[in-house]
């Protein structure tokens, strides 16, 4: 966060090679109380966190990872198991010198961070967004149908990001990794996790249904469960403010400390309670034509840089995109503030 309260927009891109596997790391913000490590899902890129990351940087540096075979990162010669992806994330944490970072995973990324947290008792905080795979849907046809149902409720921006990411990833690599994701038994790892866990689902997320998230709450030793109204599988994008607020509140008051009945029961709750669409910035967030052109140019530049393997150029493109989105968000914030002042008057 800058000194004027505006989210940081400068993105630094580096990469790590560990045992022949490459991970690309996009870093946002300056050192703070706690670093965040963000891990996206199968086939997609760290751009899925483009709206969440700037909202976390006030608390600490944000490191968003692109895993082998995804987002233009070099394909390994074979499909990787979830545990191998987790080992690579652990190597990135060690290389960056992070002390007990907050692990944030989305979709398949929840499997990766859960696997790592189960084997690293020093990790004290974990965020699982749209967790997979529900044991009752451990078949590709069922999972695909659920994904399509959820996609119907996703914003256009996520649909564009998904198409672009899957084209870059390639169908062949996606289909090689998919069976590993489908058979990974995350439910068997959850009881071994000592970290305080925050589990978040969107109201319309058929990939992570309510019953499955509630079962996770029973399996995790220390957990909070939240459902965000109006959201789908990629809840951290279209409802970034709400997800960020949940993350920061979770760090401030971890479950298991105090006498909250919420901590004792791990009940699935709606956030914010009693409000259907509380995110005023989300309601007003509508980039201008100029913002959209700037963002499009940045994305084209990023795509070219990815093809060239130019990390510095990727960082400049991501920074340009973040600046365009920050301008749009700032206008939305000001509109919300004026509306609030008018209603008080």
TrEMBL record:
Residues 36-245 form the AB hydrolase-1 domain. GO terms for cellular component: membrane. Residues 325-345 are annotated as: Disordered. It holds the Pfam family Abhydrolase_6. This is Alpha/beta fold hydrolase. The keyword Hydrolase applies. GO terms for molecular function: hydrolase activity. Keywords: Hydrolase. PANTHER family: HYDROLASE, PUTATIVE (AFU_ORTHOLOGUE AFUA_2G14860)-RELATED, MONOACYLGLYCEROL LIPASE.
